[in-house]
Amino acid sequence: MYILKCYVCVLFNQSFFRMKTCKTKQELRSLLSILREKNCSVGFVPTMGALHKGHLSIIKKAKKKNNIVVVSIFVNPIQFDKKKDLINYPKTLDKDIELLKNVRCDVLFLPSEKEIYNDNPTSLSFDFDNLENKLEGKFRKNHFNGVATIVKKLFEIVEPNKAYFGEKDFQQLIIINKLVKKQNINIKIKKCPNYREKDGLSMSSRNARLTEKQRKAAPFIYKILKKVNKKFNNYKKTKEINKWVKNKFHKNSQLNLEYFAIAKEKSLKTVKIKKQNKKYRAFIAVFANKVRLIDNIQLYNK
Ligand code: PAF
């Protein structure tokens, strides 16, 4: 059986060789149903395009563990709280397609807005036990309802065995975990590490919008997070660290701090006093003029 399964999937990869692009749900469903009948496992990497090395590392990871990898590119309008942010979101489709071919993505799902929302792009309303109102949720109203709406729709279309999400958007990752748990969705969610530039800046599609000066200033964010990690070992109370971070950004002329928080990894509740053997993370959002950058790191808790 396993040999047959591998044979069909290898045949798929070799005979078509080039990546298949599906623009409609129906096209994608019928292609995947043939493969699924032959027991090919499907890994899924949802994206909004403007692909970078971080995305590619996720796709490579998915390739290792699944017979077929589907990548979607869809800039989801309902997860943007500001229209300007949606308009300014980088769109680099031709380059994305080249990159996907280079990493041997099997299937690109490239739906139109009409295909997904049928002229009515509205969010469903979810209850994620208050995870959605913390950190990013305080500053981006309805953002996670928008994310969960599209992810749920894509899951229903692709029906993958495994779906891959980066730790770069840590809150998104745990909300998606909550989504599959609460809605009994039978898909394994795989977390992928935050991929960084050599100078430490977390890779993001938004980095392309930084001016040269802002780009040079941006690694400061990770530098501060690493120092926070050291300080976290020395202080029991987080108040001092919060103050220190605010002060550091106050002195930085290129970067404006929106929020910094040390929170529990599971509940995302901010902490005043740390306890031993609990997992904590530091979360940060910063503006470089109009470009919003987020980052987070796990804190080493002695
Ligand atoms: O992380 C992203 O790029 C998006 O939020 C996602 C998961 C593709 C949903 O639009």
Write up what this structure looks like.
The protein is of the alpha/beta class and 302 residues long. The chain contains twelve helices and nine strands. Strands 1-4-3-2-5-6 form a six-stranded parallel sheet, sandwiched between helices. A three-stranded antiparallel sheet has the order 7-8-9, with helices on one face. β2, α3 and β3 form a beta-alpha-beta unit. α8 crosses α9. The mean pLDDT is 94. Pantoate binds next to β2 and α8.
Features:
302 residues, alpha/beta, 6-stranded parallel sheet, 3-stranded antiparallel sheet, 9 strands, 42% helix, 18% strand, binds pantoate
Give the proportion of residues in helices. Answer: 40-55%
Strand order of the largest sheet: 1-4-3-2-5-6
Q: What ions, cofactors and ligands are bound?
A: pantoate
Q: What is the CA-CA span between the terminal residues?
A: 49 Å
Strand content: 15-25%
Number of helices, counting only DSSP H or I runs of 4 residues or more: 12
Rg over alpha carbons: 20 Å
Weakly predicted, low-confidence segments: none
Q: Give the strand tally.
A: 9
Q: Please identify the structural class as seen in this structure.
A: alpha/beta
Give the ordered list of helices and strands: HEHEHEHHEHHHEHEHHHEEE
Q: Give the overall average pLDDT.
A: 94
Helix and strand topology:
Blueprint: H1 2-16, E1 20-22, H2 25-37, E2 42-47, H3 53-65, E3 68-73, H4 83-88, H5 93-102, E4 107-109, H6 113-117, H7 136-139, H8 143-158, E5 162-166, H9 170-182, E6 188-192, H10 212-217, H11 220-234, H12 239-250, E7 256-264, E8 280-288, E9 291-299
Parallel strand pairs: 1-4, 2-3, 2-5, 3-4, 5-6
Antiparallel strand pairs: 7-8, 8-9
Helix pairs in contact: 8-9
The structure holds pantoate (PAF).
Pantoate is lined by residues 46-48, 76, 79, 147, 150-151, 169, 172.
